[in-house]
Design brief:
The complex is a heterodimer of chains A (about 325) and B (about 325).
Chain A: H1 11-25, E1 29-34, H2 51-55, E2 60-63, H3 67-79, E3 83-90, H4 98-105, H5 108-111, E4 121-126, H6 141-145, E5 151-154, H7 158-170, E6 175-180, E7 205-208, E8 213-217, H8 220-234, E9 239-243, E10 246-248, H9 252-262, E11 265-272, H10 277-289, E12 298-302, H11 311-317, H12 321-332
Parallel strand pairs in A: 1-2, 1-3, 3-4, 4-6, 5-6, 8-9, 8-11, 11-12
Antiparallel strand pairs in A: 5-10, 7-9
Helix pairs in contact in A: 1-7, 3-4, 8-12, 9-10
Chain B: H1 10-36, H2 51-57, E1 65-69, H3 73-78, H4 83-90, E2 114-118, H5 124-137, E3 144-149, H6 156-168, E4 172-178, E5 181-182, E6 185-186, H7 187-190, E7 207-211, H8 215-230, E8 236-241, H9 259-267, H10 270-280, H11 286-308
Parallel strand pairs in B: 1-2, 1-3, 3-4, 4-8, 7-8
Antiparallel strand pairs in B: 5-6
Classes of the chains: A alpha/beta (about 325), B alpha/beta (about 325).
């Protein structure tokens, strides 16, 4: 028997194809961000490479390093009927544009009584692993999940990255997509998704079925959790892995059904554990399933510290497959 | 500033006056209604600044788009915001343009191009750029307007926006209404440089300071900027000098404004000044103007009555308009 072919398709390639397919299908889709167009390299990591050459400088525009101006331009163009996909290079840079995102993109539909709406996508990347220190790799999804009017999405596979981005572009409301920088380049799949592929917003994926414990996670931690679950299986522990994919609004039905089945829940995210997304999920599971739980809900998250630079500190900061496995083992025993 | 080739004709001047008269009467009514307790609201009076948006709007079409600020009801009314939907929104009723969800600081009326009202200082400009970008992509000659105050001229968003508009040659007109007070602080105390208009030079964009209280000057500057934008020649910054006759918000006595400065500004009230000019120049008679003003009062009466007799929203409305899809109970 031949060994299975090695995967070649990365999240980066899937995102590039999603943007290209969306631009090709709908001329209202426009892209903007720092270094986005081909003369500037087609994006700092190349997610938008080739698109300005294909679709023109009017629709695919590099911008000044000015995040408020970028977000404002996206919001304004969306009010006039366009579907802008704005790239904020790194998630920490969204802090510079919070007024535009929180006070305007998220709220204009409500504040206008539904007369206007803001169908924009904000793509941003983050994640530790490259020794970037405290201002280049925070996961800040909880900040945005806390704001009514914006959806928050993170994929952990090329198929989901493609399908979620296509759905986000077609969604009538603002969607923030959090991309993970260190896993952009990891070959994970064998084929690029078909142009018709979509992943609905608000729908989690059960990436591995199991009966002893449910682990709810997203972004790079979904990859770590899948690895931990495979190891746990070798030790006879059956782990159900749920990748939320959409962090807000999150898929309560899928999570509650799984925890009802396993009676145990662990939530894993790279973001600082305190006041994180895990706290909200834990609270809802406690409210709904308190009497059915075999153990208190557990959470693994980043340390309550800025992301550090030094390698041993960076390694210590966030959960990984080994720590997730250790926690799973404790929970089940 | 001398008037340019775009100076307004007699008919335009009368049109501008019509708008200023509406704005002045509407401000006076809002303050009266708040004082009487009939409607409670947060309110930032624009009394004294009426000529700026009236002259500007006389150059604009319905499809030209406006992003204004919390002190912006004059900007909106001048551009055609309907009185009933305005007053019902001020009263927080379901018949308001925003179904009572926005209120005085977030008034919106897209049919007249009134796209955003922001309560955040400086945030009108970044969004106006996007409207301008859309006009460019549509190959339309419509323009986008960002209005803001002298206080906003010191916040980063304005500078990011002027730079991007210049680089992208956007059909955007930045209209700074310099009323000489940023909240409670005198303009000169907190502003580097003599004029705000001079900052445009840093972006290689035309920048002019005009007497915004002079209908002829204001119109000429606005018409020139609009013509440039429509022709694809890019943005303009207009610094319109004006003054507000009341405190920052309703209830603020404005004690930080020296009495002599206020008295001089009120003595030069731009609305009666324009009225007197129309009569002196033979553009309109006293009777004609009085009839216009009386009709405005009736319209406002009807709008207030419509507002206070309209239904209040209900708690379930909180689940609607957060997203396109209603939030489940």
């Amino acid at each position: 028997m031949n060994a299975p072919a090695k995967p070649t398709v990365t999240i980066l390639a899937a995102l590039n194809k999603a943007l290209s397919d969306a631009c090709a299908e709908d001329e209202k889709v426009i892209l903007l961000g720092e270094d986005l167009a081909d003369p500037e390299g087609g994006g700092i990591v190349g997610v938008t490479r080739g698109l300005s050459s294909k679709f023109g400088d009017d629709r695919v525009r590099s911008t000044p390093i000015a995040e408020q101006a970028i977000m404002g331009a996206a919001i304004g163009a969306s009010l006039a009927g366009y579907k802008p996909v704005a790239e904020i290079m790194l998630m920490n840079f969204t802090t510079v544009a919070m007024d535009m995102i929180v006070n305007h993109a998220a709220k204009l539909r409500f504040m206008s009584g539904g007369q206007t709406h803001v169908p924009i996508v904000i793509r941003t990347m983050t994640g530790l692993g490259f020794g970037s220190g405290g201002q280049h790799c925070d996961y800040l999804e909880a900040w945005f999940a806390h704001v009514a009017g914006i959806k928050v999405v993170a994929a952990s596979t090329p198929e989901d990255a493609y399908g979620l981005l296509r759905s986000a572009i077609e969604d009538p409301d603002p969607v923030l997509i959090i991309e993970n920088l260190p896993t952009y380049y990891t070959p994970m799949s064998h084929e690029l998704p078909d142009p018709s592929h979509r992943v609905p917003l608000g729908k989690a994926a059960i990436q591995r079925e199991g009966s002893d414990i449910t682990v709810v996670t997203y972004a790079r931690m979904a990859n770590e959790t899948r690895n931990a679950a495979a190891k746990a299986a070798e030790a006879g522990i059956s782990v159900e892995v749920i990748d939320l994919r959409t962090i807000a609004p999150w898929d309560r039905e899928t999570v509650l059904a799984s925890v009802r089945k396993t009676g145990r829940l662990l939530i894993v995210h790279e973001a600082v554990r305190e006041h994180g997304v895990g706290a909200e999920i834990a609270a809802v599971v406690n409210e709904e399933l308190f009497g059915e739980l075999k153990m208190p809900v557990r959470r693994l998250g980043g340390a309550f510290a800025p992301v550090p630079y030094s390698k041993p500190l960076e390694d210590a900061f966030a959960p990984n497959a080994a720590r997730i496995l250790e926690c799973i083992t404790q929970c089940v025993n | 500033m001398a008037t340019n080739a775009y100076g307004p004709g007699a008919e335009t001047l009368l049109d501008i006056y019509r708008r200023t008269a509406l704005l002045k009467a509407n401000d006076e009514r809002i303050r009266k209604v708040i004082t009487s307790g009939k409607i409670a609201m947060v309110y930032y009076s624009y009394r004294g600044q009426e000529v700026v948006p009236s002259a500007l709007s006389a150059c604009l079409r319905d499809d030209d788009q406006l992003c204004t600020i919390y002190r912006g009801i004059h900007d909106m009314l001048a551009k055609g915001f309907p009185l009933k939907e305005l007053w019902a929104e001020l009263a927080g009723r379901t018949t308001g343009s925003c179904k009572g969800k926005g209120g005085p600081m977030h008034l919106t009326y897209p049919p007249k191009g009134i796209m955003v009202t922001t309560g955040i200082v400086g945030s009108s400009a970044p969004i106006a750029n996007g409207l301008g970008w859309a006009a460019q992509l549509d190959k339309s000659d419509r323009v986008a307007i960002a209005t803001f105050g002298d206080g906003a001229s010191n916040i980063g968003a304005i500078h990011e926006s002027m730079n991007l508009a210049a680089v992208w040659k956007l059909p955007v007109i930045f209209v700074c209404q310099n009323n000489l007070y940023a909240e409670h602080t005198a303009y000169k105390k907190m502003t580097g440089g003599e004029t705000i208009a001079a900052r445009a030079a840093g972006y290689e964009m035309p920048g002019v300071r005009v007497n915004g209280n002079d209908a002829v000057e204001m119109y000429a500057a606005a018409a020139e900027a609009v013509a440039r934008a429509r022709a694809g020649e890019g943005p303009t910054l207009i610094e319109a000098m004006t003054f507000r006759f009341h405190g920052h918000n309703f209830g603020d006595p404005g004690e930080y404004i020296p009495k002599e400065e206020m008295a001089a500004a009120v003595a030069a009230d731009p609305v009666p000044a324009l009225r007197a000019k129309l009569i002196a120049d033979g553009i309109a008679t006293e009777d004609q103007l009085a009839a216009i003003e009386a009709a405005i009062e009736v319209e406002i009466d009807e709008a207030v009555e419509f507002a206070v007799s309209s239904p209040w929203p209900v708690a379930d409305d909180l689940r609607v308009d957060v997203f396109a899809e209603e939030i489940a109970r």
